[in-house]
Automatic annotation (TrEMBL):
Organism superkingdom: Bacteria
Classification via Pfam families: SBP_bac_8
Location relative to the cell: Cell envelope
UniProt protein name: N-acetylglucosamine transport system substrate-binding protein
Keyword Ribonucleoprotein: no
NCBIfam families found in the cross-reference section: chitin_NgcE
SUPFAM superfamilies linked: Periplasmic binding protein-like II (SSF53850)
PROSITE patterns (alphabetical): TAT (PS51318)
Amino acid sequence: MGFTSDVGRRDLIKRSAALGLITVPAMSVLSACASGGDDDTKKVDKGKKSAKNPLAVNESAALDVVIFDGGFGQQYAKDAEAEYAAAFPKTKGKVKHAATQKIQTVLQPRFNGGTPPDLVDNSGAEQMDMGTLVGKNQLTDLTPLLDAPSLDDPNKTVRETLRPGVVEMGQFDGKPVWILYYAYTVYGVWYSKTNLAKLDVEYPETWDDMLKVCEKAKKKGIAGWTYPGKFPYYLPFSLYPFIAKIGGREVLDAIDNLEPNAWKHPAVKAAFEAYYELYRKGYILKGTPGLTHIESQTAWNQGKALFIPNGSWVENEAKKTTPDDFRMAVSAPSGLDKSDKMPFGTLWASGGEPFIVPKAAKNPEGGMELLRIMLGEKSTKNFIKQVSSLSSLNGGTDGLDLPPGLASAQQALTKAGKNVVNPRLQDWYVTLQKQQIGVGALGEMMAGRMTPAETVKKCQKFADDTAKDDAVKKYKHV
């Protein structure tokens, strides 16, 4: 998601205040959408399929694109649209581009009338609810795009060029892929190499070493950790992969699947107890429970705390307060002990900035072709340079001079290899993840108002209540 503007910086994982505004309006929009239908007679004729046109795009048909105008801006999309027009000269002047921060408000009448755009960057505070879009059958399956030859190497499909977890994030039920996440976020424990060097320590790979580093920092008047206490659903950015490292990725899958007693797994208990120890030993920056994301990041930039759980958008977001010699970096969570099921380097990384092709789009092949162009090396590098974010194209950073944090994120991904986890709770069950588990449980535990055992019990109750709620559509890993 675009993350530099006040309105648009947060995506489904990152937004806070917008959370309560998303679900109800989006449901009403999409309920109305369901009556709009997907009249195939409104669609343009397909073009002739060829090596240069594998999706059979109508080479003279108009293309209608709506982009979320947030922190990523819209120029990267305009540049890709120019590439589209160059590839299909007869579309010159027919590529309609619109940008807005009010996706829902702008698109509601069009969805209701059965005339949605051909491609939508469904992001921002007025993002349409993904689960409802899928549940109401409002999206085009993007499998043809994923199985098409990639723009730069016809011997590789688009699917084969994507980073780990991107395809899976677009799936809700079975094999169809409804969403293509264009940006790519690396979550983990962020720190300053400069500030660790001042303490003559390196990033700790075990929890015992993490506590030792925090104790050494405490003696110097520096906190070990801080986090956005007002938005404690940031904690899972490092806590969830920590749980997976301890007990295996199947623990997170069981949690995502709302399985009975999933939160009572020993790995969850161990992870909660470890994090609670940070509070108990006084390693959390004083006042952290009352800090916003900006305030906690600023305190971290000022050297008041060593570590912060965050995502790779933080480098761009915090750049105004980041010292020139900060040497920002990210690491996967420290391990618990030698009994961990997954190796050090296991981290959470997943797609962001969701693009969709509406089911009732007139030119769905054109929408998918524009995405294919965007996932080419030229457009990808243009995106990375413009917005300082990784993209979903694997290797899209090759040959680029990346800023420290982004370079570190790329290195962390390389180190993780196949050990990348992608918890789905945050996009399958937004209220459960953010308001209940994040604010109502983890936030209380890290503020010292709830013990780890009580937190486990509370998380399980929240999950059980969601599982029993017939009004909430359920999804499972396949």
